[in-house]
Amino acid sequence: MTSKAAELARKEQSTLTTGPELIQRARDLSALLAEQAHEAEQLRRPTDQVIQALKDAEIFKLMSPRKFGGLELDLDTFFEVGLALSEGDASMAWVANFYIEHVWIFCLFPEEFQNELFADKSYALAPAMLSPTGQVTKEKGGYRLNGRWSWSTGIMHADWVLPAAIVTGEDGKRAPMFFALPRSEVKVEDVWFVDGMQGTGSNDVIIEDAFIPEGRMLSFQDMIEGRSPGAKVHSNPLYSTPMLPTLGLAAAMPALGQARACVRMFRDRLLDRKANGGTRRVGAASHMRLAHAEVQVDQIYFLLRNLVEDVMKLRNSATRLDRTRWATQLAFAVDQCKSVIAYVCEAAGASGHFQSSPLGRAARDINTVGAHIVFDLDARLELHGAAMLGDEIPGILV
Fold first, then answer.
1. Do 103 and 134 share a domain, yes or no?
2. 264 and 371 housed in the same domain
3. How many domains are contained in the chain?
4. Which one of 232, 283, 332, 382 has the largest count of C-beta atoms within 10 Å of its C-beta?
């Protein structure tokens, strides 16, 4: 670590933000995300004001090591922070959650690169493009990367990028790897014309003939098992956590946050209708829907909170059966959030279909969130059922 980074870390340790303080900041920021959600949809990316507010609140330092001036807080704080932001807006919380998780991924790289990356700042904002669609060739001292990557969440305010690609080893085996390179070395193509999660700005990234030094590569398998180089660099068990439940949490929190927000908005609408009278009274059916939705949201919250506790307890001692269970629980939770939001929107009336309506936006966003590959419930159930019976499990998403 450079003397400048060490000085920064020492200075910030004396006034280190605690987990409860960061959670409260996220709750306070939720209103700003909600206020700017319609503008983010129109811009098709997060607003600059929200990103700056998240920086000022130290949200992106959440999982960064203390030795680099970060807060080094664990998954339980990540869960509550991400959930609080997600009650404001799904799109901008999705980006924020992944920025936090991708800082954590940077902490899994070899130590020399971490020292370089965090020399002047305790975090770097980056998309991580999970699908290995590019081409990579081995060269002396590193790799040459070319191709196009879609679904680049976070690219619109990024400092770095983390594209995945398949590397063929000397033994002929093919393995997916993450690479790291500065944002200045890639091109961005504006393709983000979607019907949900419009405010994420997850455009395509194009990389042409970029050289990646040897130390800027990270194995998927090591991350999935919680045995990356960073697990040896940092003693905190956070950095020995398997990647996929961490990634899944980042993606699931916007679903639960918006389910919570929809129940609250439905309740407020019913209270307003009750207070002002009018042609539509609040009847027994509305009471039942409100109560049913609240109970269902509470169940989803406790399912995910228990998952977080289980992941923190097991870390890289988790078996593949544990990991398939976590993946299935995350997919099930998002599926249940879809059900809650549809249930509430159905009862809320036609005004929810205006493009500016938070209820309508939640319905559009949750359908897009649910389409993420990690939330394919049929696939997750199949794999977990096979794992429960001791069968062979294909693929890398466990």
1. no
2. yes
3. 3
4. 332
Gap between the Cα atoms of 331 and 381, Å rounded = 9
Ramachandran angles phi, psi of 202, nearest 5°: -80, 65
**What residues does 177 pair with on adjacent strands?**
165, 219
Where in the sequence is the domain holding 296, given as residue range(s)? 242-388
Within-domain flag for 123: no
Cα–Cα distance, 75 to 311 (Å, whole number): 9
Phi, psi of 218 (to 5 degrees): -140, 130
Closest CA to 374 of 201, 195, 252, 238: 252
Q: What is the CATH number of the domain that holds 97?
A: 1.10.540.10
pLDDT in tens, 300-351: 999 999 999 999 999 999 999 999 999 999 999 999 999 999 999 988 778 7
Would you say residue 358 lies in a domain?
yes
**Is there a contact between 197 and 90 (Cβ–Cβ < 8 Å)?**
yes
397 in a structural domain:
no
CATH of residue 197: 2.40.110.10
Walk along the chain (398 residues) in steps of 10 and give the mean pLDDT of each run. 56 77 98 98 98 98 97 98 98 98 98 97 97 94 97 98 93 92 98 98 98 96 95 97 97 98 94 72 83 97 98 96 97 98 88 86 97 95 96 76
Per-residue H/E/C for 260-316 = HHHHHHHHHHHHHHHHHCCCCCCCHHHHHHHHHHHHHHHHHHHHHHHHHHHHHHHHH
Which amino acid belongs to residue 118? Answer: F
Residue of 48, 87, 82 whose CA lies nearest to 63: 82
**248 and 371 inside one domain:** yes
Q: State whether 156 and 202 are in the same domain.
A: yes
User: Hey, what are 21's tokens?
Assistant: 């303080």
DSSP β-ladder status, 142-149 and 204-213: antiparallel
19 and 86 inside one domain: yes
Where are the strands (E) in 18-113, listed by range?
Answer: none
CA-to-CA distance for 20 and 15, rounded, in angstroms? Answer: 14
